[in-house]
Design brief:
It contains twelve helices and three strands. By secondary structure, it is mostly helical.
Length: about 280
């Protein structure tokens, strides 16, 4: 409840933290029966993290360590634990993996794929345009409501990580795609008796399109366009940032548009060739 209400973490993060804590507590129970939380030491954490490293990527193990640090910090504040043993554990050195991204020509090719005047094609094109034109995260796109869109101004109100609000700006192609989609969305909701649905992007049943559903839309058109199957919604966000920087956009401006709390996160996108 603390993570959801006070920290305002996303449902995806909450699921991961719950999984990490469950695994850790089960691991401890299997090693030392009757172990209470205030008795946990660094010596209990080490074999858990070592076992996790054998089965998971370093990024996953780093998240598990972050979960434990947050958990024991919370226990300290509640007066349940006197120390935070997870603070002693070194974080695994992460390899810098850049998401797959598109060239400008590939981006235009992908955005030219969804054709047709039916609900599905219009919706899918709008989704691709908003991902690429607005630089949104997957969870941000799935969480959009109809009232978050100001079509006339070409502005989207986006709720990012930690419930931070920012504005995303849409170019003419994205605005045109959304203009064509919205009347079909309304008709679709009326047909399914879900006129009260607030989501901007809806599924075949007239309900909010899930993150998994939005990811499937991207995967479908990437496949039909004959592009690398490794391209994800995050790859479209990465393409957005890369093409902005190639167009001489200021790194700070790109940081604001992406909703990054730290400029060092945006710095990962500066993998441009020497000409740029």
């Amino acid at each position: 409840r603390y993570l959801r209400v006070e920290r305002q973490l996303s449902p995806h993060t909450l699921r991961n933290y719950r999984l990490d804590l469950t695994q850790f507590l089960e691991f401890c129970a299997g090693r030392r029966e009757g172990l209470s939380l205030d008795q946990v030491t660094y010596q209990d954490l080490r074999p858990f993290l070592a076992a996790a490293l054998q089965k998971n990527r370093k990024t996953t193990v780093a998240r598990k360590l972050s979960t434990l640090r947050t958990f024991f910090k919370y226990l300290q504040r509640q007066g349940i634990a006197s120390q935070n043993p997870a603070k002693l554990a070194p974080a695994p050195k992460l390899e810098k993996v850049l998401p797959h991204y598109l060239s400008v020509d590939e981006a235009f090719h992908l955005l030219g794929e969804p054709k047709g005047d039916d609900f599905g094609a219009r919706r899918d094109l709008s989704i691709l345009e908003v991902f690429y034109g607005g630089g949104l995260r997957l969870s941000e796109l799935a969480g959009l409501n109809r009232q978050d869109l100001d079509l006339e101004q070409g502005v989207l109100r986006v709720w990012g990580k930690g419930a931070k609000e920012r504005l995303a700006f849409l170019g003419r192609p994205a605005r045109a795609a959304l203009s064509a989609y919205l009347p079909l969305r309304q008709r679709h909701l009326e047909q399914h008796g879900t006129v009260g649905e607030t989501a901007l992007f809806v599924n075949s049943r007239g309900r909010r399109l899930s993150t998994r559903g939005a990811a499937r839309v991207v995967a479908k058109w990437v496949r039909l366009a004959g592009l690398s199957p490794g391209l994800t919604p995050h790859g479209l966000r990465h393409s957005f940032a890369t093409h902005l920087l190639e167009g001489k956009a200021d790194l700070r401006a790109v940081q604001e548009l992406l909703g990054h709390a730290s400029i060092s996160t945006t710095g990962r996108y500066t993998h441009l060739n020497l000409d740029y």
